[in-house]
Amino acid sequence: MNGSLADSTSNANDAAAINGLAVNTPSQIGGGVRFDGIDDFLMMNHSASLDSTVSAATFSLWINWNDPVAGHYQMVMSSSNRFVTPRDGFEWACDPNGRHYFYPWGGIEQDFNLGTNPFTKQAWQYLVLTLDYATRDVVIYVDGLVVQTTQDVKTLWTQLARPADWLWGGNPDMGGASWFKGSMDEIRIATAVRSPGWIATELANQRSPSTFYRVGSEQ
Predict the structure, then answer these.
(1) Contact predicate 179/48, CB 8 Å
(2) What total number of domains does the chain contain?
(3) Overall pTM > 0.70
């Protein structure tokens, strides 16, 4: 996101800034995007490569919340069809009750509550989510630590999602206040479940590259 919203891979899942979303703003790694919490969001068009994440994937980003407990829903990411019948896209957000959750399939309206809001306001934190339909596991990490869950996703996740466009930071079809206020940077999507060790390594490397490794004298 350092001056461009283009996908850095050959999949060409480029993003578009909607409703005046501020781009190339100071962030964790070069430039990022800043959301006003009113109506702007980042959109990635529906694609076959993004669809391939529904059964096994890792989503990661750096996130900085203005206030993660702001008295309304704040969307990290959702599908454009999440709130349109049959409502079977993704939903990833904090809710007004101070909880953080992810719907790996939104066709059921039972509470996919994954745990207490784990964020610190106005601080950059590394947010990662892994999903695996084979085991019905959804795991959320903040700064490399697993967020403790309060709901058994295994009993609720009964089929694969069918996401349309991917919307980061808000969804105009949800109704009411559902907009994230803060900044995001370095959004990454992988069609594999990354291990805790992989996630910890990415955290250390991206948080402080200069101290992540050292070069010794020539041997």
Answers:
(1) no
(2) 1
(3) yes
